[in-house]
Amino acid sequence: DFSQGKRDMSSKGGAYAKMEKINAELLSVTYGTFVMQLLKDLPTLESVNSKLEEIGYNMGLRIVDEFFAKSGEGGCKDVEDTAEVMAKRGFKMFMGFEADIKDWAENKMAFTIFFTLNPFADFVELPEGYSTLHYSNVLCGIIRGVLKALNILVKCKFIRDVLKGDSQYEIRVDIEEILQDKYA
Amino acid sequence: VTGMAGVRRKEVAEGVFDLLYIEIVDSFLKMNPHGPMDDITLAKLEGMGFSTGQRLVERYTRDRPRFTDQLEVVKFLCKEFWMEVFKKQMDNLRTNHRGTYHLFDDKFRWLTRIANKEAGAHYLLFPCGLIRGALANLGFVASVSADITTLPRCFFTIKINSSQGRRGCCSCCIAFAAAYCTLHPCGLTSLPHFFCGPPRAGPSVLRRKRCGGSRLRRSTRERTRTIRE
Q1: Hey, of B1, B2, B4, B16, which one would you mutate to test binding to chain A, going by the most A CBs within 10 A of its CB?
Q2: For chain B: N or C, fewer Cβ within 10 A?
Q3: A104 touching B (Cβ < 8 Å)
Q4: pLDDT at position A73
């Protein structure tokens, strides 16, 4: 159902409240030990970034199904709508907080998603020499996977990172292609 | 969720962790796509659980008075620790009062999405490490292994050998450890202790029949046979 006008973003009956939840510290610490293992096993920081992104991508592809099953959301009418739903409803449902969208490109083929909380990076301090590590790159992968499942091919990259001293996290999403359903 | 002593813990949706965990195990499985996980990969995954268990138990015991005995520690793992991590307690605990404990979880969270026992074994490596790490931080060197009875029911076997002191277990494991593992800063080896243990009869997916160490090649073949049983 593609209704006209701005989507009503008020929390519909608290979708997050209905989700089965776990201790966020378990997520933080487990993710942390995984990143540390990758840092030992992989030759460069860039390869660690790629691996984290790949992990996130696989997660994102599957999380979409759970989102639609549990949120009661219908289809999104365009890319802007999709981005808003992902940031506000999607993040809220799975992470417990809303993200936000800004800085749309003129042609609507790029945007920035930003947020201040990030359970993946809790208890983490990046030591010297790790400025090229994107510790939370799993989130870039999740976003890429989610959008891929919705036929939107993107590239994501962190442009601001709280672990590197910024005030919030910002991921720049560049849309490469919007695939059309063959059986539209 | 309200944890122990009424402390409110931050939460995320279960699905996020479940998917991350599946991907982590899969990425280790893919390291050897044509066969079972090799010992080094197993050690890494278990080791990750070990680190996680150490860190989590540190947070959850900060305001507690010291434990006075082994049984109290294991009970803590079964109740408070398991509650913090899995939002439920262990369903049953058995012990011979000589350092061996069986901890039963009738509906182990990370097995609920698994269809077959053989695959399930790999999802129990991390929780074995979790228990072993938690025990280590509470002062006990232990070996921890896991068995699936019928999915999603499993039990963990803890062996705390008080005569071993704080250093490693048997000498061939130390040799193996020297080759592949690093010495943990607290002085305990980070060797996964399920590599050694007395030979035992019965179907088991994670049990080793012999030590690793210098007989690594043979034990890998044995273990391959064990996993395929």
Answers
A1: B16
A2: C
A3: no
A4: 84
